[in-house]
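Section 3.1: Structural characterization of target chains.
Under the original work plan, the team committed to producing a structural model for every single-chain target entering the pipeline before any wet-lab resources were allocated. The record below documents one such target. The sequence was received from the expression subgroup and is listed exactly as submitted; it comprises 205 residues.
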Amino acid sequence: MREATAQSPLTAAVSEEDRLRADLYNYLGLMLSAAPDQMLLDQTAGLSGDGSDLGQAIFGLARQARKLKPQAVEREYNALFIGLGRGELLPYASYYLTGFLNEKPLAALRNDMRAKGLSRAENTFEPEDNIASLMEMMAAMIVGRFGAPVPLDEQKLFFNKHIGPWAGHFFADLEGAKNAVLFGALGAVGRAFMAIEAEGFRMGG
């Protein structure tokens, strides 16, 4: 993971459905952690979707990836997330939930990370409640990168506490951001996926 490391990683068999969920969480985390290089753009360009909202969003993202070069995507990423002083968006749970950085949502996440044996990776200075890290954490829990795969009820608790209350809003903001082209399409994917996850956890109890 980019932001968090596990103390005792294990590999474990998971269902195909859960592996696909984890793959999409991982992909979102990777795309949001840094500007994608040519290899990741090429992989994105090769994605295909179906007729669902998520499938159509993936199709739109692939279409944008085929048009863009890494230099343009890096400028877009910097404008959105870095900028002069700050980018157009602040992709942190604390900011979305309280209006400020490094607030109670970050402290609560750190407590839950410690309980799961997680810590921030060395030489990483981003707060752990950034969207890329949370996507990566969720993926790792699903496939058992922190130990055994985390049961669905524990995934639900983590999602409802740390992701569900704000990630959909963030992805909607990303979709509509004035500097967003590739990342606007990524926002549509994230927004649709968060809705599916929230409904799946709701239906699952």
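Strands lie at 4-6, 118-120.
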